[in-house]
Amino acid sequence: MNQTLADKVKSRKTFAIISHPDAGKTTITEQLLLFGGAIRQAGTVKGKKSGKFAKSDWMEIEKQRGISVTSSVMQVDYDGYQINILDTPGHEDFSEDTYRTLMAVDSAVMVIDSGKGIEPQTKKLFKVCRMRGIPIFTFINKMDRDGREPMDLIAELEEVLEIDAYPMNWPMGMGKNLLGLYDIYNNRVELTHPEDNGDNDFLPLNENGEIEGDYAIKKSTIYTQAVEDVQLLKEAGNTFSEDAIAAGELTPVFFGSALTGFGVQTFLDAFVDFAPNPSAHVTEADETIEPTSEELTGFIFKIQANMNPAHRDRIAFVRICSGEFKPGMDVFINRTGKKIKLAHTTQFMADSREQVETAVAGDIIGLYDTGNFQIGDTIYEGKKAVQFEALPQFTPELFMKVTPKNVMKQKSFHKGVQQLVQEGAIQLYKTYHTEDYILGAVGQLQFEVFQYRLLHEYNAEVEMTPMGSKIARWIEPEDLDPNMSSSRNLLCRDRFDNPVFLFENQFALRWFEDKYPNVKLTALL
Ligand code: G4P
């Protein structure tokens, strides 16, 4: 049967899983791939053990994986949907790319370790999702272990992340005593160990919210407690609202165990019900491009350099926003006006060397790039030029001083720095008076990639001096008095010449704010 473009778009669900390292992102991804037929999954889900390599080994890992796009996008068929899961690397792979990936999804799944609650990286990634107003689904993981009280976890989620939570189900016990899930949304109880009188993984609930019939579990205090908790949630908790979920104001919360698979399918079924289809995108000219609009448009949110010196090529990741991609078609890059044929050079994933036959809004394609693309570029097929709104910049947290090792190579050093900065690989600052180069990043890996690429692509060796983590805050130029600079902060300019202070720590920032109460300091995202 020939599907129309609208049908295809409706079947797409594109999301990222956000979590702090070790919360269980890989394990749940594997479960999701198992439930669906994985259509394309290059390599393993992630270099699963990559977190255990020493930092200096990362280039070796890249080589082993071929190229680290191997796990960047996974496609799964489930219940008539094509689900695109975008990886957001944690561990030492964490970088601005991780944040930018969140610009290319329509929803996010937040995985939380029930023993740990909200952890720093989850908070950072959540903030970016929140800023976009995309729906966020919460999976509280590791219920097969003793963790924190569910009520505490919900309260913490609401307080720390400032979002309303709605439990879709409620755990009946935890750890060894996890009897099952009281499934509020589906009005049933899902048992961890079905009782032996028949096929009863799922027991329906009556109008009093109790299991109907004669089951041993009803005598358990754990069950009674769960029924009471749910009563309390129904009376005092948030009300379920599909609109609030769609607006990213209410997060549906699911409990489960990725490791044992318990609760994962229940989560997935509700997820495909409520996760949005590909959304419309707004252009710089304030036009809205609908995903079902006929002409192909898309934007580049990530460029993955191939670290293998034998191949200078890169992969540019495009989020398709409208139209339909077909191999061999011509597109324009808005920034340069250049026309490019998306022919044999277009591959979904470098590792499998698989050719994409078709792709529509919500899908991600990887374009083989020899230097034509930059992050934030819009591609379009039609006669009319399209430029989507710029991708946001993120506040870097780690800084390095950088100088060329060889003064004779100044020119290639500057060229390389400018290009990598433009590409979005790293951020550049200059000290206010002496114009020393300072690099800013959100993850350590960005520095290593920078150093490596400068050497291999621009033949410039660099000296890097770590400055550690700093808090960057921008100041309005008219508020700036260079005497505000002290030993606890460093005054710089960003690449657009805007003044910015790099504070040593929270204390130094607060000291500054107390001293200059009328000065407004701002952060990027
Ligand atoms: P990440 O991608 O978020 O970093 O986490 P990952 O899935 O790799 O999981 C981190 C650790 O937590 C793994 O154990 C994994 O087996 C465990 N884990 C994930 N989900 C659950 C769960 O539902 N219950 C329990 N009990 N453990 C879970 P590891 O020992 O670090 O890794 P491995 O050597 O077993 O692979």
Automatic annotation (TrEMBL):
Domain Tr-type G stretches: 10-279
Molecular-function GO terms, alphabetical: GTP binding; GTPase activity; translation release factor activity, codon nonspecific; translation release factor activity, codon specific
Subcellular location(s) per record: Cytoplasm
Keywords: Cytoplasm, GTP-binding, Nucleotide-binding, Protein biosynthesis
Positions of GTP binding: 19-26, 87-91, 141-144
Main location: cytoplasm
GO CC, alphabetical: cytosol
Coiled coil: none
One record GO biological process: regulation of translational termination
Entries under Pfam families matching the protein: EF-G_D2, GTP_EFTU, RF3_C
Domain of life: Bacteria
Keyword Nucleotide-binding found: yes
Family, as annotated: Belongs to the TRAFAC class translation factor GTPase superfamily. Classic translation factor GTPase family. PrfC subfamily.
Function: Increases the formation of ribosomal termination complexes and stimulates activities of RF-1 and RF-2. It binds guanine nucleotides and has strong preference for UGA stop codons. It may interact directly with the ribosome. The stimulation of RF-1 and RF-2 is significantly reduced by GTP and GDP, but not by GMP.
Record-given protein name: Peptide chain release factor 3
Protein source organism: Trichococcus palustris
